[in-house]
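Retro notes, item 3 of 5
We never archived the inputs for the iron/sulfur cluster complex last cycle. Fixing that now. Sequence and ligand:
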Amino acid sequence: MEINTVLEKDTFSKEDIIGLLLSEGEERTLLFRKSAEVKKKYIGKKVWFRGLIEFSNVCSKDCLYCGIRKGNKNLKRFSLSDEEILIAAKFAYDNHYGSIALQSGEVETNAVTSRIENLLHKIKELSNGELGITLSVGEQEPEVYRRWYEAGAHRYLIRVETTNESLYRKIHPDNKKHDFKRRLDCLKSLQDIGYQTGTGVMIGLPYQTNDDLAGDLLFMNEFNIDMCGMGPYIEHADTPLISSTGNLLPPAERFDLTLKMIAIIRIMMKDINIVAATALQAIDPMGREKAIKIGANILMPNITPGRYRDSYKLYDNKPCTDDSAEDCQSCLEARVSLADTEIVYGEWGDSKHYEKRRKGLTE
Ligand code: SF4
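Structure as it came back at the time:
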């Protein structure tokens, strides 16, 4: 089918999406032009910050692609103190970031639940309730999600990484701790509790096909997500999946496929929030601004104290691990102005999709 005809459609079929993922030359330009137009119409030029605090690289899981997996013994483990986390949150507040994102490896214990709950209260207190808070700390029981929601977190990001169960099994250990169904159940619980709910996938994984990627986008649309965070798969030397590098697309192709995925989801879900992932920059120095131009509207400047950043490498060549929080902010400001967009300070920048979804529920 002609790409123009596809781009005019209200909904895409799997075949339409695969066609768009394969687009090249003029067709690829048309795809990106369309997604940029949709972004301009529904989101405008604005980009919002989420000050990212990677507060612990301790994880109880062993995902086969991840640099901070439990089984990686070549890694110095760290956990920020409460005081360090609160100082980072105060930095975000004082610099009018609007929101922070608290991210860590996945640990399910009563101690972690209470600690995060307590921190959420303190962050709300130090910012007069003004800092928005996104959590990204993995699978937990619904009751735990509820406690954190009541303590002030209002967005939650849990990446499913792939929605093809058989591919999921190939990139995770085959045991109860890495259960595909539980991950989807968690996503559903978060949505039911009232969080702005986000997910995403890795692009260019070994064994992954365009059919899988099209299925991922259809899943996100059907699930009615509010936020999306997708990035290219980048190998980490100390992981089991490194032995599958023979199956991989070259990094430049993984990068291009990621841009196409962002463009297509922007056209499909016009008013969601889409992150310009740092992993894009690991492949292309201008990766994040390219993503912003064609559809992304959220940036996550890293405000984790600099000395810990080198130990939070989910993948190799992670950029900006030796920058300070101030460096990160000015670098991103320059990048955003290059992409002809403007950073909005002092606003949460909530997903417009969420607002509409909520109204739909209550009307
Ligand atoms: S991907 Fe997440 S849950 Fe899996 S090992 Fe890495 S930090 Fe832990």
